[in-house]
Amino acid sequence: MTSSSPTLSPPAYGYLPIPGSALRCYRCTNYSGKCTNVQDCSYEDACLQLFERGGKIIRQCIRHTDCENARLSQMFPAVSSFSFSCCSNNLCNGSPATMISKPLLGTLASLLVFWWCLL
């Protein structure tokens, strides 16, 4: 007698939530230097960086639907002038220097390969 156990086909498995795969964002309020506090977000969230005019930065999880100027003005009424960015990769709301270094490294690597091929 053979027994068979139920199996999930790859397409069905691809739609199952994987534990620990929710978005992670930095969380620092009024902090313009390096931020090391990490927050686990929900699946409906994005990572926010809100830049106040005086140089302070607010980093946190935020709902994707709240990533618009009018909604942020309501959520942060004490901040009169700001710019912001929302992103949806893990820890993508880190310091601007960290975010710039990865593309710069890729560009430098590409140039090095190009130069090496010319030799």
TrEMBL record:
<keyword id="KW-0472">Membrane</keyword>
<keyword id="KW-0336">GPI-anchor</keyword>
<keyword id="KW-0732">Signal</keyword>
<dbReference type="InterPro" id="IPR045860">
    <property type="entry name" value="Snake_toxin-like_sf"/>
</dbReference>
<dbReference type="InterPro" id="IPR056949">
    <property type="entry name" value="CD59"/>
</dbReference>
<keyword id="KW-0325">Glycoprotein</keyword>
<protein>
    <submittedName>
        <fullName>CD59 molecule (CD59 blood group) a</fullName>
    </submittedName>
</protein>
<dbReference type="Pfam" id="PF25152">
    <property type="entry name" value="CD59"/>
</dbReference>
<dbReference type="GO" id="GO:0098552">
    <property type="term" value="C:side of membrane"/>
</dbReference>
<keyword id="KW-1015">Disulfide bond</keyword>
<keyword id="KW-0449">Lipoprotein</keyword>
